[in-house]
Write a structure and sequence with these properties.
3 helices; membrane; transmembrane; mainly alpha; single chain
Length: 95
C-alpha cells in the first residue's frame, strides 16, 4: 500500500519544501508594513544619534578651545572671512 499525496506526512514534506512557500496577500502586506515601520524607526534613531553625537562633538571641541584660549583665534578667522565677503558684495556693480 502506497501513501497518497494527501497524507499528513506528504503535506508536511510539501510545506517544508522552499519551492512550495506561498504567502497570501495579507501576510505580504503585513510584511511591507513591518519593513516600513522598522525602517522609519531606524531612520529616526539614526537622525537622533547623529544630532546628539554632533552636539557632543562640537561642545567637546569648544571646551578644548576654551581651555587653550583658541576661540578668539577662530573668531578672528571668521571675522576676516565675513569682512572680505562684505567688501566683495559692496564692490560688485549694481544691476
Amino acid at each position: 500500500m502506497t501513501k497518497s499525496a494527501t497524507s499528513p506526512k506528504a503535506l508536511r514534506l510539501q510545506a517544508k519544501s522552499p519551492n512550495n512557500v506561498r504567502v497570501n496577500d495579507e501576510q505580504q502586506r503585513l510584511s511591507y508594513n513591518r519593513a516600513f515601520f522598522l525602517n522609519l524607526v531606524g531612520g529616526i534613531g539614526w537622525a537622533l544619534g547623529m544630532t546628539v553625537g554632533f552636539a557632543l562633538l562640537v561642545s567637546l571641541i569648544s571646551l578644548v578651545f576654551s581651555y587653550l584660549g583658541g576661540l578668539p583665534l577662530i573668531g578672528n578667522f571668521f571675522a576676516t572671512i565675513i569682512n572680505h565677503t562684505l567688501t566683495a558684495i559692496e564692490s560688485r556693480p549694481s544691476l
